[in-house]
Amino acid sequence: MTEAGDGPADGAISDVPWALVFDPAVNVRALGEIQARGFRAAADLVDRFVNIADHRAAPAADDAPQPDGAQQSNGTTVPDVERLLDSWKSVIGQLAGSVRGVAGASPTGGASFDFVGAQATGRLVLEAAGPGTVSAEVWLHNGGTADRGTVVLRCGELISHEGSVIGSAHVRFEPDTVPMPARCSRGVLVHVDVGDDVAPGRYHSTLLVEGHPDIWLPVILTVGAPAA
Questions:
Q1: Which of residues 83, 104, 125 is at a domain's end?
Q2: Given its phi and psi angles, is residue 149 left (phi above 0), alpha (psi -120 to 50 degrees) or beta?
Q3: Burial 177-187 (b: 16+ CB within 10 A, else e)
Q4: Among the three residues 51, 84, 104, which one is the final residue of a domain in this structure?
C-alpha cells in the first residue's frame, strides 16, 4: 500500500516560496506537488475502504446480520458504492480547490500592474497606528515575450480631505528600480514614513509607472491617533 513520505517530497505546497509564485518553473513544481498529493490521497482512500471490507467480513451463518453495503456471493460485504463515490468526489473537489489556489493566488491582495494588458488592478492600502514606517506590496507582471527593461515607480504626495499633506519624499520603493524581462513578475514594497507631525486621517495619492502613462493605482493611507 502507498505510504506518505517525509520532508519536502511529501508534496506540501508550502515548500513553494510565494514570492516566486508567478515564476513558470515554480508553478510547474507546485502543480506537480499537488498532483502527487492527489495520488497519495486517492491511494489512502482505497486503503481505507479495503480495510473496511476486510473488517466487515460476515459470519458464515445465513441469518448473520449484514452491515450497510452490498452482499457478495461469498458472504462478505464491501463498502457502499455511494459512500465510495462521495468520498472520491470529495478528494477531487479538494484537489480542484488546491489547483485554483495555486493558479489564482495573489500575494498582492489585488494591487498589481500588468504591462502586457496595459492595465492596473486593485489599490494600495496602508494603515499606520501612529508615527513610523508602514509598508504594502504591489506586483508587476510581464507575461509577454518582450523585455520591458527597467521599471521605476513613482508616487505623488498624499493628501487628506482636511488638507494635511505627506510629501512624496516620504514614499520609498524596495527595490527602487525593477528589471522586467520577458515572462516574469516582481513584487515591490512601498514604504511610507509617517512623521510625528502627521495628523490622523485618511490620505490619498496615485501610484504611477515611469514610461507607462495609461496605468495607475490609487493609494490609501489611514493614520490613526497615537496611543494615549
A1: 104
A2: left
A3: ebebeeebbbb
A4: 104
In this structure, is residue 1 part of a structural domain? Answer: no
Do 135 and 219 meet the contact criterion of CB atoms below 8 Å apart?
no
Q: Is residue 2 part of a domain?
A: no
Q: In this structure, are 97 and 188 located in the same domain?
A: no
Is residue 125 within 8 A of residue 108, CB to CB? The reply is no
**What region, left, alpha or beta, does residue 69 occupy, with left being phi > 0 and alpha being psi -120 to 50 degrees?**
left
Query: pTM for the complete prediction?
Result: 0.54
Nine-digit cell at 204?
Answer: 490619498
In angstroms and rounded to an integer, the radius of gyration of the C-alpha atoms of the chain is: 28
Decide if 79 is inside a domain. Answer: yes
The residue range of the domain holding 125 is 112-223
Q: Are residues 130 and 208 in the same domain?
A: yes
Output the tens digit of pLDDT for each of the chain's 228 residues. 444 444 444 444 445 454 454 555 555 555 566 666 766 766 676 666 666 655 655 555 555 555 554 444 454 444 555 666 666 666 566 555 544 443 344 443 479 999 999 999 999 999 999 899 999 999 999 999 999 999 999 999 999 999 999 999 999 999 999 999 999 999 999 999 999 999 999 999 999 999 999 999 999 999 998 766
- List Cβ neighbours of 9 (8 Å cut-off, separation of 6 or more): none
Clarify whether residues 48 and 134 are in a common domain.
no
Shared domain for 91 and 160, answered yes or no, is no
Are 21 and 107 contacting, i.e. CB atoms less than 8 angstroms apart? yes
